[in-house]
Fold this protein.
Amino acid sequence: MAKPRKVPQRMCVGCRAMKNKKELIRIVRTPDGNIEIDPTGKKAGRGAYICPDTECLERAIRGKSLQKALQTEVSAAIIADLKERLTSGFVD
């Protein structure tokens, strides 16, 4: 009988809840320093996971946990772009 596969778990930087990796959105700092949303979850770079909820994003920004997870300062323009993508449902 085959062993059941483990489902990868990640922690949301906003609400700090452990969830399935597929339920969360990955935000990545690429090797050249750009911060992007990674819909595939496979881009190279330092990643942080967040729930697809604007409240979790607000909490991550307010507590600076997004900046700590990405190990860089996140500009206001990038934060506005992330908020717009989350509210519109366009995460690709």
